[in-house]
């Protein structure tokens, strides 16, 4: 399971199995989406499969995730998603009404995100193989002129900003999973971030890094950026916005909110001279109302994320090995 | 199972469930790939999931199919595939050596097809869910200027050409499936058709329709074209190239080669004034050596495919309802 969790084991699978076999330079970039040039157009191109259980959870569904996950991967290159592909793997015997509900949620999410579903595919596998509904989406979008957002561009001095509360989506999905129910109603904050990113880029095209902290949570996102750019990241734990319900649920379950998946949040590395203006713009957007500075990029401890704890000490924030909670995207 | 078979049930799923939910105009085109414009570039965009069993079969593997299937969908718009996304859904416990073999086959097929794997994703589902390895690929490629290839462009008078022997891939996969082995060694002819299509377009950009007769076979491909363009298609059964081994295997199993899936073959509708030159160009290409004219597009019986049989009679070639053989792509 760990190899799909977005942590170290996932990274090893890509580095040791897929990258050598595929031999791609673009793939080696390790960004959420690839930047490619075709017919003179600079495009972001990304894909994600969705295997979340249950298919419907408070605040969303696999259909919302399938749209927002790929739209957000594109947004992390600064691109507005223009077209999505959508491929279903259905298990024989799944209720058509369930497929229709998922499709309706997916279509509604696409309209909200302003992206068009351009092409699709459906496969059916025998009952007992597959798992009801799996969805893959791939997306393409134009990268605006002058925008060059990649993990490698993190620089010492950059201000690290998150767009809002973390851990909400992961805990929302977990809260309805068989055997893990607990007495809190937390709704997923799953959302498409293209509009928020456009708002930020209107302040300055020189945003250095954007990342949506999905699988592996904020810890994995920061760790990957530190490793890719060869910089250190220093954050202040108490500045990371974690809602009380999420903190309580995590305490009960022995989880660290830093490692819980999100969908609908982003972390940004912004040059210090633009940080205040970008933060103001984010807070003026509905999806960035609770945006906060959580730390900075430093020259010390390259490749490593260090958190100042509430007690005044520091701790190393490791890249998670596997995943705390499987199948939440 | 029938809803994933590429026949009538698949079409109904798209028309009644997905199209209304997604509300896409591009999707309604029903071509193998969508033609979209982005940043001034005219792009073909397509996706396919691959759930074939077994993962390795004579002449190929799920890795080859995952590349060639999407490359060929793009080629059916006249586009040379430039970039692929590649997403794996792995079942917990699948051997990493098996994943590596699949990845190597996939990488090799991409190099042969001249396409770059630009972005990827890996998910792992619990043991007992999923089925070893599922792969989704999506692809983008440039559509050359002056090329407008779509099912709707079929016109009475068009000459119908297939690029070679049909039914080979489907029978090859079936020949190694548990319980269906029979004493023939047939290798899959799975191949990337971008080069063959470029050869044809060098003769004339005015090829009207291209289609790779995958799920549902040649019968479904011709039926869909007839329906999309509101034309009739008349073919001569004995002119359809079917190798003896395929014909024999189909006879034993009670299958019709017209409905068996292919991957690495195409059917073309070409204006009569260009047909001879296009056929000559195809035959000069390794993947078109056994290309043959199998019939023509007619104004009679719109939406219907009619075959002249060996006995001098005619029969209607129906769109298959479901699928003769599940999971061969």
Report on the structure:
Two copies of one chain form a homodimer. Chain A is α+β, with helices and mostly antiparallel strands. The first copy, chain A, folds into two domains: 31-142, 2-Layer Sandwich (60s Ribosomal Protein L30, Chain: A), CATH 3.30.1330; 151-317, Alpha-Beta Complex (Phosphoribosyl-aminoimidazole Synthetase, Chain A, domain 2), CATH 3.90.650.10. Chain A is built from eight helices and 14 strands. The first copy, chain A, has helices at residues 8-22, 62-75, 96-113, 168-174, 194-203, 217-229, 244-253, 272-283; strands at residues 34-38, 41-50, 56-57, 60-61, 80-91, 116-125, 133-142, 159-162, 209-211, 232-236, 267-270, 292-298, 305-308, 314-317. In chain A, strands 9-11-8-12-10-13-14 form a seven-stranded mixed sheet. The first copy, chain A, has a five-stranded mixed sheet with strand order 1-2-7-5-6, with helices on one face. In chain A, strands 3-4 form a two-stranded antiparallel sheet. In chain A, strand 5, helix 3 (96-113) and strand 6 (116-125) form a beta-alpha-beta unit. The longest helix of chain A has 18 residues, at 96-113. Chain A is globular, with a radius of gyration of 19 Å. The mean pLDDT of chain A is 90. The interface between A and B is large, with 72 and 72 residues. Chains A, B: Belongs to the HypE family.
